[in-house]
Amino acid sequence: MKKENPPEISAPVLRRRLLDWYDRSKRDLPWRRTRDPYAILVSELMLQQTQVKTALPYYEKFMGLFPDAAALARAPLERVFAAWAGLGYYRRARFLHEAARAVEAAGSFPRSLEGIRDLPGVGEYTAAAVGSIALGLRAAVVDGNVIRVLCRLAALRGDPTRAPLKDRIRGLAGGLLDPSRPGDFNQAMMELGATVCSPAAPACLICPVRGLCRARAGGSQDTLPELPARRESVAVEKSVALLTRLRAGRRQVLMAPRTGSGRAGDEGRMVGFWHFPEAPRRSPHPVAALALSCLKNGKVEDRGAFGPVRHTVLHFRITLEARWFEVQGGEARAPWSFQDLEKAGGLPLASAEKRLLKGLRGLAGGEAGPESAGGSADPLGGAGRAVAQGRGRGRGAGKGRRAGA
Ligand code: SF4
Q: In terms of pLDDT, which residue wins out, 371 or 263?
């Protein structure tokens, strides 16, 4: 059966159908119950690279701790990182903190698109989202969801991440924007992309704008947009040394804050976060030498393998293989320092370090800390078993290996 082309997209018809659907079907989300630009900015930065259901509890917690720009501006960055820990892409937390300080310095949140764009970490997309939703500014949002919806609605071929199609999409989004409800229209477009016009298998049968959609009319909805191939992922393997010692009956662990040359995949993003000694796995020096390099005049006893912990940052697949060492004598060499094992969970930690710390607490006799609550029973995915064997062998045979003097 021959399919008929729908007419050109009529902006008034699209606006009406889309907004009627949005008013009926939108998800009830906490950032949709406010027009506070600060709250909208928090939600927008959290939602970059993060799904709604993941961001929700973080948003509630963050707004509870820092209900306005003044509260966030006053807070030390370490506290902000701690509230953000687990969301990833920590540069967003740093920018948010800087933006709050800029707002406080200016005396109020900017009221123009240019002013919002001048805030740290705010680009074209975030400025349009915050400006339209919180302040009713007529700026069209163009994110991945909107690009997908528009490429399908208008049956646009080509790479939408590059000119000239990129510019055409921006023009189309601006032309379709409802001038009387720009914030709702932007959210409706993003909601449609997130819940109906999904990347795989768009639900055209229930789509409120299906009668206007050229891709659906031509049967090309599954082949649009024509995005470039994803970047190949890169495997990164690291050795980690977990050094513990007993002081006055309390277990301590050796850590230091990152200073800028962080691990592969997130250099510059993790400054201020605490970590354990680590080195590339193919390093010619064994992990015991890494452990000793962090000490002045100490000895270490190898307590066994610990890990692996796997996680992904951007396109890097990172595997951390750790060994646990008990330190005897000596002191930490700067910038390393011994932190109370029970309290280390209160430091800014990325999720991989949290998992290592949690496993170490269980194995080294520390008590569960705040991040343990509600965690999985086996945070290292089998690492606990590996360590238990390593420690059992060492102690049972009385052969805890001394790695050096
Ligand atoms: S009809 Fe299908 S392809 Fe077109 S906008 Fe709706 S869900 Fe997307």
A: 263
Q: What is the pLDDT of residues 116-167, one digit of tens each?
A: 999 999 999 999 999 999 999 999 999 999 999 999 999 999 999 999 999 9
191 is catalytic: no
Residues 44, 278, 353, 371: which is the catalytic one?
A: 44
pTM: 0.70
**Distance of CA 19 from the midpoint of ligand 1 (Å):** 15
H/E stretch holding 96:
helix 91-106
**DSSP strand E in 248-381: where?**
250-257, 274-275, 278-280, 295-296, 299-313, 316-328, 331-332, 337-340
Domain 234-402: CATH class, spelled out: alpha beta
CATH of 11-218, one of 3.40.50.1010, 1.10.340.30, 3.40.190.10, 1.10.10.10: 1.10.340.30
Which residue spans of the chain are classified as CATH 3.90.79.10?
Answer: 234-402
Residue 6: the pLDDT is 53
The set of protein residues with a Cβ atom below 6 angstroms from ligand 1 is: 149, 152-153, 196-197, 202-204, 207, 209-210, 213, 215-216, 221
pLDDT digits (tens, 9 = 90+) for 31-82: 999 999 999 999 999 998 788 999 999 999 999 999 999 999 999 998 998 8
DSSP, residue by residue, 307-318: EEEEEEETTEEE
How far does the centroid of ligand 1 lie from the alpha carbon of residue 208, in Å?
8
Report which ligand 1 atom has the smallest distance to the Cα of 213: 4
Q: Tell me 346's DSSP state.
A: G
Q: Is 7 left (phi over 0), alpha (psi -120 to 50) or beta?
A: beta
State pLDDT tens for residues 362-383.
887 643 333 332 333 333 433 3
Best residue for ligand 1 mutational test, from 3, 191, 196 (most atoms within 8 Å of Cβ): 196
